[in-house]
Please model this.
Amino acid sequence: MPKLGSCNVFLRATFGIDPGAEIGRQLGELATQVQVMRGQEVQTDPADTTLVFLASGATKLGAQASRERHQIVAFHFGGDIFTVPAVSMHRYMLIGLCESTLTTFPARQFYDRAASNPWIMRALLERSQTALFRCRDKAVNLGQKSAGERVAGFLLAMWERLDASEGPSPMIDLPMSRGDIGESLGLKIETVSRQFTKLREAGIIDTHGRSGVSLLDLPRLAEQAGYYDRNTVPPRPEWVERKPELVP
Amino acid sequence: MPKLGSCNVFLRATFGIDPGAEIGRQLGELATQVQVMRGQEVQTDPADTTLVFLASGATKLGAQASRERHQIVAFHFGGDIFTVPAVSMHRYMLIGLCESTLTTFPARQFYDRAASNPWIMRALLERSQTALFRCRDKAVNLGQKSAGERVAGFLLAMWERLDASEGPSPMIDLPMSRGDIGESLGLKIETVSRQFTKLREAGIIDTHGRSGVSLLDLPRLAEQAGYYDRNTVPPRPEWVERKPELVP
DNA sequence: CGCAGATTTGATCGTCCTCAATTTATGTGG
DNA sequence: CCACATAAATTGAGGACGATCAAATCTGCG
Model:
């Protein structure tokens, strides 16, 4: 196994480029292989955006709002590609949820070298937009939803992103603590716990130890999450006027 | 003035390409010129992401969490480039805050045609990341900050993005209503109003009519927003272990 | 088996929401 | 130019949800 194994996997799987190719070599030069354990921070450049490929494991990207307040902005799992912003309004930290292997690149230099390759740029753009759309959904949840809706929505999101056991009541293994969940949802740990209890008492989920969650009733869980039924037409608020005018 | 004037301005100003060039012509074919008045919705494709260039005016991008709950995810001003996502978890709507002129493109097709041009792809990627970083900051605010901090932070953000009169106490002209501000900050209109009153009584701001705001004391406003002083080193929470291990 | 940390549960408090009533701003017609 | 109409913004009182503080219980691991 070559020493930049993880990077090569990344380049091949994500962009379909041969690591032996010139562009692969050039990008590989920028790579830093990092391994972190649970709770450890991945060092990123405070002055520039860092591009990260998470080969295996799971991480959380958190921001410090002030000394005692932290917001988890995103969770990442094996295969994810994302960026850690430079310090600006808030300070961001990338921290392992479990033992994780990742490859980091200085974003600016990576883009400079990859610019000539349409495939890579296209892939990066789409990934960036995925992250943006997910973040916007998070903003909607944080701004408009109750504690119960947020927790139910969180479980559904994890069910979609984590490997769940098959069957009518799939089981997932949460790699993050209740505290992490709270910091992600803008809730305190006690509130998260109480919502878990409510869902358990309602027969919608069951918990096994600290990390195991059985989703006993997915339809009802989705209902608790407060989303529209995606099969119904989303109603349009009456206060929006509908007269788009195409300029001749 | 050619009929795609706004589009040409967009292509030249943003990507530095000559609209007469082949690529300019190809992209111009995809453009739709739209003009909206205050409160009108810009029609976007529910099935695909729409790329939007806002030539002049101001808009809000809102999401419906449910019939009675809306979250404004971003405000845009003249010169901004952004995307309106297809319907997924939530339904997004782009609405004019005042009379606005904009050019829309089907994102997928635009990317297909622009892929061969590294400059354009690079510019799109950077804009997308800017939007992502701004959205993450919004998530931090929504998840962790009090009503007072959110309103103060909002005023600072608008001061940076809008044209403010010069001088020690700059004045800005908000194009959005108190209701819009509330929907953006995850607060009710009454709460926003009360926070404005508090800031006014503290001598930090002054209001003129519905839209005028004088920022009388920027340092104290920043203090109210609850950000770190950017000149101090952001403290590191003690629960984060710092032993990143570089793989040999 | 025992320990440390994570989670759950309980009681109380504070912030923001809700509902309702005024007051103020804007723009339209006299 | 002013009076009026309408919508927006402000103010007030009361209530609900989630935070806070405190204690008990459970989990996973040595």
